[in-house]
Amino acid sequence: NYGLSEARGEVIIFIDSDIIVGSDFIEEHLSYHKKYDRVIVRAPVIRTQNRDNPIGERMKLTDLSSAFYTIVHIIHL
């Protein structure tokens, strides 16, 4: 990844084009890095099928089947 090889600094945040972030996203993310020595930060999965209210329906990570991840990896190969 060219962006990663050119990055400078202690923390790198990856954001996909389908991510909705709040106004305090970077501040909140960095607070975990300051609080813990080694950490990977992730956010909750939110259903986006409802285009009128994309952040309205939260879903647990366990609600997703492993088939979803398999399909995603096959598509991106």
UniProtKB/TrEMBL annotation:
Matches recorded under InterPro entries: Glyco_trans_2-like (IPR001173), Nucleotide-diphossugar_trans (IPR029044)
SUPFAM superfamilies from the UniProt entry: Nucleotide-diphospho-sugar transferases
Domain Glycosyltransferase 2-like: 1-59
UniProt-recorded name of the protein: Glycosyltransferase 2-like domain-containing protein
